[in-house]
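Chain and backbone:
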Amino acid sequence: MFNETPSGGGDHGAALDILARARPERLKTFAETLLNDMSEISVLTNRTGLVMVPMRDTVENVDFHLGEVLVSEAHITDATGHIGYGMVTGRDLERAMAMAVVDLRIAAVGEEPATTAFLTEERAHQAAEDTARMRQVEATRVEMETF
């Protein structure tokens, strides 16, 4: 249920992934443009906190916590009951709120051309960054023979 958009698609989680990694200034600017066309918004949560990072020891098959990560979280709703949510790493409450605004807009209206274009552009930018990072990692790979 949480990962579904009102239009019936199962790509809500994918949209949240893109929004969480979106370039901060672009995300904030885009959210500002959406606010003009939205009804009154109520802020349920806007805070920072720590989230435990779970890991699994593959040798002993045991879960443990690697540590904590500082996150900023925003949870908002509109007058019709639609919910928007945003969580990003670090102490950037504005970015988390911008993510929640975009998520709320998608929940209330569905993906419109502006949000679809924004998500597509950010997905392409993130894919290019990931490819460049993996090329840097690949350049440091050393092949060793084992005896």
Summary: The beta strands are 41-57, 62-78, 83-89. The chain has a mean pLDDT of 90. The longest helix spans residues 113-139. Residues 52 and 68 are 4 Å apart (CA to CA).
